[in-house]
Design a protein that fits this description.
The complex is a heterodimer.
Chain A: H1 27-35, H2 40-47, H3 53-60, H4 70-101, E1 121-122, E2 131-133, E3 139-141, H5 152-155, H6 160-181, H7 189-193, H8 202-205, E4 209-212, E5 217-226, H9 236-243, E6 261-270, E7 276-285, E8 289-298, E9 301-308, E10 315-319, E11 324-331, E12 335-345, E13 351-360, E14 366-370, H10 373-386
Parallel strand pairs in A: 1-4
Antiparallel strand pairs in A: 2-3, 4-5, 5-6, 6-7, 7-8, 8-9, 9-10, 11-12, 12-13, 13-14
Chain B: H1 3-11, H2 16-37, H3 40-57, H4 66-103, H5 112-131, H6 134-144, H7 150-156, H8 161-181
The chains are: A alpha+beta, B mainly alpha.
């Protein structure tokens, strides 16, 4: 429809009524003629005169009085955002300060002081045992004693590294003693006895509970690890062995809160043959969040899946590559987490699964989490070798 | 006095109808005129003309809402006056006035085609208004029917002025798309 002339049928007339106002003449007619040359916008303006009464009446109503208006809400929201940002920045600085004062890089789940004593139970009989029977008829001697915590007087005044070294030696002795006293020790226990076992791995060797099921035996391993110590159970060489010499520099512990408390629980599920089929490790820490990893092992292949609630986000990894599993996820647009799982053999005999999680937080602060790597490595080594997944180192 | 009573006065040809209209809706009509003309004298003139037009229109008209009926008359009168003033500013001055006077002698020449086209455009714009969300429609009408300023609209609906501008921008774009879809070329 092309219009070259005025559209204002009601230019000088009322919009409603029986005659529609179209009988007006005189000046009204004059004005209509003038409108012939009106612009496009004028035509629409004139056509709008015929808007429905109900719409016009509705537009007459004023908005109810608000107790708060956008004019005041906007600056309030801006102030709130700035306050939140300030708090976050302040907290970030605080964490950095804590990391700086912590001295050496931290591995919180390798605490040396507070390894909880575990008791061993078997089935429903609640009868204590010192070993967990394996399906192939062999038995494995597990420590039935709690790893002695370092006396307070020993810790007092000693540096964290020194403390770690002392406790490390003690634990080595303890393990060696347990292994030598064991009657049904596994064949590969010898290699374990001579090896340097990380502190955090030791709780995994302590079987506290065994539940007999039809086909599956489950052993729960629990420990509470405090990150208050700044010690390392693994030397840098060993860390390099796990992560690879090239990646050692990438393993940063800055993101770990050395004062954080970590609780770790591992559940081991055996198959009918008594071999480890699944290991589920759950850990939690204020900084790290909830962490769950599942390691499913079949000869020649290891499947690792896990999820964690870092920064209140849920991440998942899935992989079957024995050599390395790497997944990248972008969360909330600004956060990237990289998961790497490596099946490695360290310099000497530390064989295990390394799981590394790195995250780039919104503020650009890099975080590296060594979650439970050392916790499982020592334990899995034995099973992997037994299952033929890895040859003894 | 209620609307229907005033209308009854018009139908009874009582001059009190004009007084009551002025008392009841004088300010309302004046605001519409002033929004368009921005001139007190012109606005007063338009409002006075409004009563005359209403007097001529009732009977036979019996509007449902007297305020809107009178407001529409005022709006149209004001718009006409605005266009005349605009033409004068362009330099048509006396010539335009002379022509205006002559045009009064010419009977209305709106053809049937023009009437149909005008009615069609009005119908489509009306339909378009119904497609808009309530708030958007209200803002659109306050701006292009009542010719209110952004500030007044924002105050009326307790909104931010930028929100009003954004809403109007969207509405205009929608109207353009709507008219194009309907095949309207103005």
């Amino acid at each position: 429809m092309k219009r070259e002339k005025s559209t204002h049928s009601q230019m000088n007339m009322p919009p409603q009524g029986e005659n529609g106002g179209r009988t007006f003449h005189g000046r009204g007619a004059f004005h209509e003629r003038r409108a012939v040359h009106g612009s496009k916008s004028e035509k629409i303006f004139q056509a709008l005169a015929a808007a429905d009464e109900e719409l016009l009446a509705r537009s007459e109503q004023k908005a109810g009085k608000r107790w708060i208006t956008w004019r005041t809400l906007t600056p309030m929201a801006a102030c709130l955002c700035m306050a939140v940002a300030g708090i976050l920045l302040w907290q970030t600085g605080l964490l950095k300060d804590q990391g700086a004062t912590g001295g050496a890089p931290e591995m919180a789940n390798q605490d040396t002081g507070q390894i909880v004593d575990m008791q061993m139970e078997e089935g429903n009989s609640m009868e204590e045992k010192h070993s967990v029977e394996k399906g192939d008829g062999g038995t494995r001697e597990a420590a039935d004693e709690a790893v002695p915590a370092a006396p307070e007087e020993d810790r007092a005044g000693a540096s964290a590294l020194e403390e770690a070294a002392v406790l490390d030696d003690r634990l080595d002795d303890t393990i060696a003693e347990q292994q030598t006293q064991s009657v049904n020790v596994q064949d590969n226990a010898k290699s374990m006895a001579g090896s340097m076992v990380p502190l955090a791995e030791l709780p995994a060797l302590v079987f506290v509970e065994k539940q007999e099921k039809e086909d599956v035996k489950t052993a729960d391993v629990e420990t509470a690890v405090s990150g208050s110590s700044s010690s390392y159970a693994l030397s840098e060489d060993e860390i390099a062995g796990i992560w690879g010499a090239d990646s050692i520099s990438e393993v940063s512990w800055e993101g770990m809160n050395p004062f954080e408390q970590y609780d770790i629980t591992a559940t081991v599920i055996y198959d009918k043959e008594g071999k480890v089929r699944d290991v589920e490790i759950q850990g939690s820490g204020k900084e790290t969040g909830e962490v769950t990893f599942r390691i499913h092992m079949t000869p020649g292949q290891v499947s690792i899946s896990g999820e964690t609630t870092l920064s209140r986000s849920t991440c998942q990894i899935h992989g079957t590559d024995v050599a390395a599993v790497k997944q990248e996820y972008t969360l909330r647009k600004e956060t990237i987490y990289v998961y790497e799982a490596e099946f490695v053999k360290a310099g000497r005999e530390s064989i295990g699964v390394g799981i590394r999680v790195e995250g780039t937080a919104a503020k650009g602060r890099e975080r590296a989490y060594d979650l439970i790597t050392r916790f499982v490595s020592g334990f899995l080594r034995e099973e992997m070798e037994a299952g033929g997944i890895l040859s003894p180192g | 006095m209620k609307d229907h009573e005033i209308i009854d006065l018009y139908w009874a040809r009582e001059e009190q109808a004009i007084q009551e209209s002025e008392r009841q809706y004088g300010r309302y009509c004046y605001s519409i005129a002033y929004n368009i003309l921005s001139d007190r004298e012109d606005s007063d003139e338009c409002v006075n003309d409004t009563w005359l037009r209403a007097w001529n229109a009732m009977p036979p008209s019996r509007p449902g809402r007297l305020s809107l009926f009178l407001g529409t008359i005022t709006r149209n009168l004001s718009f006409d006056k605005w266009k005349r003033k605009k033409a004068k500013k362009r330099g048509m001055g006396e010539m335009e006035l002379a022509l205006d006077e002559l045009i009064e002698c010419v009977p209305s020449v709106r053809s049937t085609e023009e009437e149909v086209e005008a009615a069609e455009l009005e119908r489509l714009i009306n339909l378009f208004l119904h497609t808009l969300p309530e708030r958007e429609c209200n803002i659109f009408l306050r701006r292009y029917w009542y010719v209110e300023s952004y500030a007044d609209i924002a105050k009326r609906y307790a909104m931010n002025m930028n929100t009003v501008k954004t809403s109007l921008f969207r509405s205009r774009r929608k109207l353009k798309d709507y008219l194009e879809e309907e095949g309207i070329v103005i």
